[in-house]
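note to self — DONT lose this again. spent like an hour looking for the file last time. sequence + predicted structure for the chain T wanted, 202 res
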Amino acid sequence: MRVSRAQAAANRRRIVTEASRLFRERGYDGVAVADLMKSAGLTHGGFYGHFESKEALMAETCASSGDIRTRWERLTAKRQQPPFQVLVEQYLSPRHRDQPGHGCLFAALSVDTARQTPEVRHAYTGTFRKFADMIADWLPGRRTNRRRRALATASSLVGALVLSRAVDDPELSSEILDAVRQQLLGATASATPASSGKPAKE
């Protein structure tokens, strides 16, 4: 039976969504195409009607995370707090730490991505640039060295989450999140002028 274009598009989105979750939970090498398609409720043979290879899917899952700014803007819009504060508090939270499948691409797959094809790394890089640009817009205080500060902040966020997941001591894990959260928010609290809660523009 021939599948309609609308259904084919829906199936593709389902594959990408499920792959994004599974890759974050298990790593790229920990997910077989057959297992992925089964999890998506589709047949194994249908995979290659959508993607030339597993690597092509991996690249698409990285690129599909490129709307990261939209998702964070929706979250921050619900809070009566500066966007940067919401970002730091939510990113460095126990909930984010404990749900890698629904969390940040960078904290879950950076080490794996470094070993992948140029196609996958290029898609990852494009999404990371958008993440860093978002942070640069939201940084309160002085506008000088905004890009460098944004890159340092992104690295601190990702590194803290990676370490908090890796250690086997729950207390140490929480200490890591708390220490970096306080460091980032303390540094911006002392910056001037005080943030108005709106994304800053260069």
